[in-house]
Amino acid sequence: MAQEKRKVDTVYVYEKVVVYDTIYVDKAIPLKPANLLSSSLEIKEKEIRDGKQQNINKKEVEKQIEKTSDTRFQYGIRAGIGFKNVSWAENISSKKQQFGEHIGIWVSKNVFTPQLSLSLSANVFYWHSTFNLDATKEDTPLNGFYFTQDQQPLMFQRFNNKHFEYVLQLKAIYQWKIFRPSVGFSINKNIYKMQFLVPENQILNKLDDFKSNQINIGFSLGLQYQISSRFLIDLEYQHYKINHFSLKNTSFDFDFLKTNNTFAESKISLGISYLISRL
Fold it and tell me: How far, in Å, are 70, 107, 143, 181 from residue 115 at the CA level?
């Protein structure tokens, strides 16, 4: 039996040794700067911001914008209520004051300074009756026949002081904080109507109106309170002189209640104004 020869395997073992070391630097190592070419830095703009100053400047800008916008025309509407007293009606009516409503439009513009402005307004008032004279129902102080210049007969029928009033007003307004006092010049026209039976084809059977048509001149004093940028509350007093009060009809040569006396008319109104826009 043949003897087998055994093979011997060789095993190699490799070992990796890692050595860690710590380096301590006691002194800074001087390094020479390289000759690098670079453009020099230049400060183009310097800005220092302050929060409080920014707010102040913002408010100033807003004020300037507001002042600039105020130089334009402003227009709006006004509505309210009021009470009126006319001296010629004191002997007829037991009530001293008439109640009424009004509506109008206005336009204004600043002049000279932002606080001063001129305002032009047009208003229509409707005043309710405080007395009623009706000859068809009762005996009144005005009952009877009246004759024109050419002797045509007229017969009184009805009259009360319910009427429309038209007012054109120019006033100066001064802005003081949220208050705006004003003074102005006004003209008005009251449309009173008195009804008569008048002749038609020589028969007294036609109803016709005799109306007041004179223009009265007066003044106004007012105060506005600004509750917002667009709304204002108005309180105003107006006073007029009524010269030669009469009621006329263009078809007849006759002036009813014609008098040479001068009467006084005064009213106080409370309203609210709304700024629509600026032109």
Answer: 9, 16, 57, 11
